[in-house]
Design a protein that fits this description.
The chain is mainly alpha-helical. It is built from seven helices and no strands.
Length: 173
Amino acid sequence: MDLISRISRQLETVRGVTETFLADFKTPEQWALQVHDQANHALWLAGHLGTVDNFMISLLAPEKAAANPEYQAKFGMGSRPSSSPSDYPEVGDVLDFMRKRRTVVLEILAGMSEADMVEPPPKGTPDIMPDVGSIFETLVWHEALHAGQITVARRALGHAPLVDAPPKSEGDD
């Protein structure tokens, strides 16, 4: 499997995990549940993932970035989650933004060549991303990190783990 296909698969896989976790949040109060007063909640995380995807789009194909100062203020780097659902746009709108931004990321990636992936990153790219390919790789590990936060809130709501430990066999202690 080539690099672009591998990264695309990882972006789709991690988003599938995130979407599975988010499907268990039903009420506005559940979406804004913070397991402690500094924790990110599911609604903030969904908006944040879309906002970060949008930032990466602004680096790679600025004409495809969505100008959304409200989302940047509520979900961007440095923003802090509020436990009040009324401080946020409707959940469906936030999820739609998150999904549409990922679709654009995948479209940009599909238009890349292997040679493009090793080019220096565009001006304004954080130093942790030394080439174009690392921009896409960052989206994978960034989302995986936040999916872990979502599952903590999900478990706090009483949902069972999606994957349980295998049953012990005889002789295991």
